[in-house]
């Protein structure tokens, strides 16, 4: 047995360390550990503060998807104080959310994940003429998926952003890559295992196409989050408001934050999202994924095969509260539920719905700390977020010193990430989880599908046809997790067109209200109130829980997606999605565990919510340690 | 000429957020000519790339682990600044700047001149307050920023002077 350490895992937001125990003969991963420095203490900052300010602090938890914490926070306070926001605010929040999804997913695929699948070194071997021919063939072959987006505005017949399928385009990018490679300083391309056999799976032309788009999308990506800037006033850290939004609407005042001119900019950005997702992202994804699956890479599902969870998103219209259940009666994306055993087939999978009251039930969602560096009075039990406590209790590693770890102690405490559980069981969250829940809910007839649910099902059916495999085989895999993210970016762009049409129609009907201020004054609040704010962050289900007493915050807890996916083991022995995924990914080259890293990256891990609080010194950029077989695990 | 003064860090972790605090204070105390942008970069990742566009001179303010006593001032210029980005991890945040600048280099958008200014943090505990050693030396850091901008030929006006002139014509 060999014990391999990768610390830190690069190309993620924040700090993550993994350790895997591999059988050198078979490449089978016997056990895996993931440890993150997600030191959370938002409640320490928020306690005693005005609940109307909570969103501004909460969005500082993470600089990468700032607006999502603001969204969860305003929903949470509005739930506590029973505030219903105006229609325009709901549409605007949805467009900001959909833009985050489209932007974040696309950037993750090209700039944080693509180099696990394609290599700039292989791209140098490609023939630019053949690459141009291939690009056209792929647009022809996979382009049909783009037709799934309904266009309620019907304004753009010809795309402005279209992949250039000319030899000159690819030659220019190839020259650029060559310059970087020949300089001997790989820069952004450094610290990769380019000699790993998996980089030989694709023909050089696919490598060149994808790496060219990697570079091309660096310029395009910034156009995708323009709606956040227009409606939120700025980026990063856009403005939200308890009760609605701050961006007043006027078609007569050219200085108004939202006017005809600015809406035209938003519209243009949304069409760019549609094109970037349809013509670049999805086509590249299918081209790469298809070959990987054909070459037998249908592993890495791990926990997704066994249990996934979602909260639900895209309220079609304003709702009266979350814990009341009204949020879930209004949503378009019915990923609210838990699905077990999807890998056995959609008919055999077990579906459990998750609605408003479940989030208030102290037995449904709990966080454990038995293996995390925190202290609870009784660590065999979990705590509901309303009762949550964060008391750090650092114990150090199994081998090494407190500041210089050799190996972590999986039998004791080994991570700064708590362990959230659904009824005591670990669940995977994220785009793949949302797709599995929605697909199962529709196929088993648990819900009345919205247009969005139907689009999800059609997307899955198209990909199943391309891969010639049923969804329960390809979805719960590393390829499937990456594919679901791309499909969801398309949902984001489609939702933006849909809600922009609704916003136009509502403004035209004379409604320009963006905020409900009846309950702004604390004298209108109850003495004590509890609230729940839920959303689907790009990386998975996100929840904020608040208790307000005498107009001030008495407790505030956030349960973030990467705690679900990357948290430590629970006292019952349940392992998180990162660990299960690595256990489900055989390693070909022992000291280059690309399969494990690709699996981890497929979750889009985000631990930016923290820094190296205790573990700052002496870390190399990438450190891979292999424990020899003489020291048996 | 476009100049970007970029404060980075996490406000929730005391001294980790000193870069952001400096930008806030600069905005309060001084007025800057057109072409100089002050930005609270938070703990932003790849999105920062967008703000690098057309920037000729970039001044980054951050908490820096350099091994000196808390409150010590650091300034990296030229090749030294590259050490900050490419060498050991001196910044408390993992993401962002290093990768963003590497990407900027790749897309030929790297600012012509990059200077990094910062201080050794005392505390990274959960708090909105800066620690005593940072507070003590905070004005020195502000002065360094102004000094650097002057070196670049930028005229910075003290808001207090302006008020004084306004009330004493």
Write up this protein.
- The complex is a heterodimer of chains A (633) and B (169).
- Chain A is 40% helix and 14% strand.
- Chain A has helices at residues 42-46, 54-58, 66-81, 87-113, 120-123, 128-142, 167-182, 204-224, 226-232, 260-294, 303-306, 326-330, 356-360, 431-443, 451-467, 471-474, 478-508, 561-566, 577-583, 594-601; strands at 2-6, 13-14, 16-22, 29-36, 307-310, 313-315, 331-333, 337-340, 350-353, 365-368, 399-400, 405-407, 419-422, 528-537, 540-549, 552-559, 606-607, 624-627.
- Helices cover 38% and strands 21% of the residues of chain B.
- By secondary structure, chain B is α/β, with parallel strands linked by helices.
- In chain B, α1 crosses α5.
- In chain B, strands 3-1-4-6-5 form a 5-stranded mixed beta sheet, with helices on both faces.
- Chain B is globular.
- Chain B has a single domain (3-167), classed as Rossmann fold (3-Layer(aba) Sandwich), CATH 3.40.50.
- The interface between A and B is large, with 41 and 33 residues.
Give the key terms.
heterodimer; A: alpha+beta; Cytochrome-c3 Hydrogenase, chain B; four-stranded antiparallel sheet; three-stranded antiparallel sheet; globular; disordered C terminus; B: 169 residues; alpha/beta; Rossmann fold; five-stranded mixed sheet; 6 helices; 7 strands; 38% helix
């Amino acid at each position: 047995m060999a014990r391999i350490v990768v610390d830190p895992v690069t190309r993620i937001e924040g700090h993550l360390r993994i350790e895997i125990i591999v059988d050198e003969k078979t490449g089978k991963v016997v056990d895996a550990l993931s440890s993150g420095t997600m030191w959370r203490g938002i409640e320490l900052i928020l306690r005693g503060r005005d609940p109307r300010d909570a969103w501004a602090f909460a969005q500082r938890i993470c600089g990468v998807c700032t607006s999502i914490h603001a969204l969860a926070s305003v929903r949470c306070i509005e739930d506590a104080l029973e505030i219903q926001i105006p229609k325009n605010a709901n549409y605007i929040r949805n467009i900001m959310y959909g833009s985050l999804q489209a932007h974040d997913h696309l950037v993750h695929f090209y700039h944080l994940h693509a180099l696990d699948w394609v290599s700039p070194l292989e791209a140098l071997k490609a023939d630019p003429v053949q690459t141009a021919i291939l690009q056209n063939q792929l647009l022809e072959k996979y382009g049909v998926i783009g037709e799934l987006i309904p266009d309620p505005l019907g304004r753009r017949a010809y795309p402005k952003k279209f992949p250039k399928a000319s030899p000159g385009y690819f030659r220019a990018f190839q020259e650029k890559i060559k310059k970087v490679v020949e300089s001997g300083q790989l820069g952004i391309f450094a610290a990769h295992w380019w000699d790993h056999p998996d980089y030989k799976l694709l023909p050089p032309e696919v490598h060149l196409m994808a790496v060219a788009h990697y570079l091309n999308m660096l310029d395009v990506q910034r156009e995708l989050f323009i709606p956040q800037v227009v409606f939120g006033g700025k980026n990063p850290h856009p403005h939200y408001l308890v009760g609605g939004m701050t961006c007043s609407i006027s078609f007569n005042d050219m200085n108004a934050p939202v006017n005809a001119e600015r809406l035209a900019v938003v519209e243009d950005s949304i069409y760019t999202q549609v094109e970037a997702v349809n013509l670049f992202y999805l086509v590249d994804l299918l081209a790469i994924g298809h070959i990987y699956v054909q070459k037998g890479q249908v592993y890495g599902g791990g926990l997704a095969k066994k249990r996934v969870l979602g909260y639900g998103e895209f309220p079609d219209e304003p709702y009266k509260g979350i814990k009341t259940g009204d949020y879930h009666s209004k949503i378009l994306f019915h990923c609210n539920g838990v699905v077990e055993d999807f890998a056995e087939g959609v008919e055999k999978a077990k579906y459990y719905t998750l609605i408003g009251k479940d989030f208030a039930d102290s037995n449904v969602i709990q966080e454990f700390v038995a293996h995390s560096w925190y202290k609870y009075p009784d660590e065999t039990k979990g705590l509901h977020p309303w009762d949550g406590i964060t008391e750090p209790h650092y114990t150090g590693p199994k081998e090494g010193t407190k500041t210089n770890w050799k190996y972590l102690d999986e039998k004791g405490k080994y991570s700064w990430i708590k362990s959230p559980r659904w009824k005591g069981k670990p669940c995977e969250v994220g785009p793949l989880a949302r797709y599995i829940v929605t697909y199962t809910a529709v196929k088993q007839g648990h819900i009345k599908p919205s247009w969005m649910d139907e689009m999800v099902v059609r997307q899955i059916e198209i990909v199943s046809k391309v891969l010639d495999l049923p969804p329960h085989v390809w979805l719960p895999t590393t390829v499937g997790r990456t594919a679901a993210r791309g499909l969801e970016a398309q949902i984001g762009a489609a939702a933006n067109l849909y809600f922009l049409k609704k916003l136009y129609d509502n403004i035209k009907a004379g409604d320009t209200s963006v905020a409900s201020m009846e309950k702004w004054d604390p004298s209108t609040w109850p003495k004590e109130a509890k609230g729940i704010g839920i959303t689907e962050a790009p990386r998975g289900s996100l929840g904020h829980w608040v208790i307000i007493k005498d107009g001030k915050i008495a407790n505030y807890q956030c349960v973030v997606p990467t705690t679900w996916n990357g948290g430590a083991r629970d006292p019952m022995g349940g392992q998180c999605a990162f660990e299960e995924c690595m256990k489900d990914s055989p390693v070909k080259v022992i000291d280059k565990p690309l399969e494990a890293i690709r699996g981890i990256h497929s979750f889009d891990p985000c631990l930016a919510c923290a820094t190296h609080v205790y573990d700052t010194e002496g870390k190399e950029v990438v450190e891979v340690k292999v424990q020899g077989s003489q020291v048996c695990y | 000429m476009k100049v970007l003064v970029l404060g980075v860090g996490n406000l929730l972790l005391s001294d980790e957020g000193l870069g952001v605090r400096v930008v806030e204070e600069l905005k309060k105390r001084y007025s800057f000519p057109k072409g100089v942008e002050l930005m609270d970069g938070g703990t932003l990742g790849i999105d920062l790339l967008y703000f690098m566009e057309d920037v000729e001179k970039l001044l980054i303010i951050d908490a820096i682990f350099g091994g000196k006593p808390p409150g010590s001032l650091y300034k990296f210029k030229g090749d030294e600044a590259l050490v900050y980005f490419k060498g050991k991890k001196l910044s408390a945040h993992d993401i962002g700047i290093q990768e963003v600048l590497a990407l900027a280099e790749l897309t030929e958008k790297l600012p012509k001149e990059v200077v990094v200014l910062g201080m050794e943090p005392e505390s990274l505990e959960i708090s909105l307050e800066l620690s005593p050693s940072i507070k003590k030396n905070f004005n020195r850091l502000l002065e360094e920023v102004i000094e650097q901008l002057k070196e670049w030929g930028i005229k910075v006006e003290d808001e207090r002077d302006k008020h004084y002139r306004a009330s004493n014509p």
